[in-house]
Amino acid sequence: MDLQLTRPICFFDLETTGVNVTNDRIVEICVHKVYPDGKEETHTWRVNPTIPIPAGASAVHGIYDADVADKPTFSDLAAEVNGLIQDSDLAGYNSNKFDIPLLAEEFLRAGIEFDMSKRRAVDVQNIFHRMEQRTLTAAYKFYCGKSLEDAHSAEADVLATYEVLKSQLDRYEELENDMSFLSEFSNRQKVADFAGFIAYDGQGQEIFTFGKYRGQTVESVLKDNPGYYSWIQNADFPLYTKQVLTKIRLKSFNKGA
């Protein structure tokens, strides 16, 4: 089943130095862009992460320091990647928890604004887990009847993810071929920052999900304890979380003006 799109959607996958959203870096990125008229294009970049790739990470994706020593850094590529995805919704496999937050960090380190508020995110893994509870390799076999060769290479994973989503739409009548529906369906928790430190409550207000203010609205916490904002800004939180917090703070200031 072809996707019914009102704007482009970019399926993407990252291979990285590790799984810490704040501190790890991209070593390979693949973006497969699908347009409403059916046109498709795929772009893959190897990336110099500017930090050593741990042996454990290399054992997973097969990319070693020597493979990326002469490659551009993400800062070198950021404008090109942003130009490709800036008009698009985003989709991936486990992308809401990992790929989108880490991509946001890389963009912000490169000085490029990253804002998810005006685009939708479809996490194919979350759809799969709600329906079948499996891994990407098993999902590809289950939905597409194929073996996933070169698993953990960015391009193989991203193209498999795209095929899995189309097969999910074919299999499940309750899934609507609509990116707003799929974004809503594949997001288990309503979060403001994707890393999950700031979420939305039942009334649509931003709340903290951690620490002593867990469950309390961000607006009320910053009003009663303004220093909490500075603590988060200086602590080891993702740059995108800090950016979202700043926007909430400015919104509160404007309401009080």
Detailed description of the structure:
- The chain is an alpha/beta fold and 257 residues long.
- The chain has 2 domains: 9-186, Ribonuclease H-like superfamily/Ribonuclease H (Nucleotidyltransferase, domain 5, 2-Layer Sandwich), CATH 3.30.420; 198-256, no CATH class.
- 44% of the residues lie in helices and 14% in strands.
- The chain has helices spanning 55-61, 65-68, 74-85, 95-109, 124-131, 136-144, 154-171, 179-186, 218-224, 227-234, 239-256; strands at 9-16, 26-34, 40-46, 89-92, 121-123, 198-200, 206-208.
- It has a 5-stranded mixed sheet with strand order 3-2-1-4-5, sandwiched between helices.
- The mean pLDDT is 93.
The second-level CATH architecture of the largest domain is 2-Layer Sandwich
Number of domains: 2
Characterize the biggest β-sheet: 5 strands, mixed
Can you tell me the residue ranges where pLDDT is under 50 for at least 5 consecutive residues? none
Q: In percent, how helical is the residue content? A: 40-55%
CATH superfamily of the largest domain: Ribonuclease H-like superfamily/Ribonuclease H
CATH topology of the largest domain: Nucleotidyltransferase, domain 5
Structural class: alpha/beta
Ends distance: 51 Å
- What gross morphology would you assign? globular
| Number of separate helices | 11
Report mean pLDDT, rounded to a whole number.
93
- How are the strands of the biggest sheet laid out side by side? 3-2-1-4-5
Q: What sequence of helices (H) and strands (E) makes up the elements?
A: EEEHHHEHEHHHHEEHHH
How much of the sequence is in beta strands? 5-15%
CATH class of the largest domain: Alpha Beta
Tell me how many strands there are: 7
Query: From the alpha-carbon coordinates, what is the Rg to the nearest angstrom?
Result: 19 Å
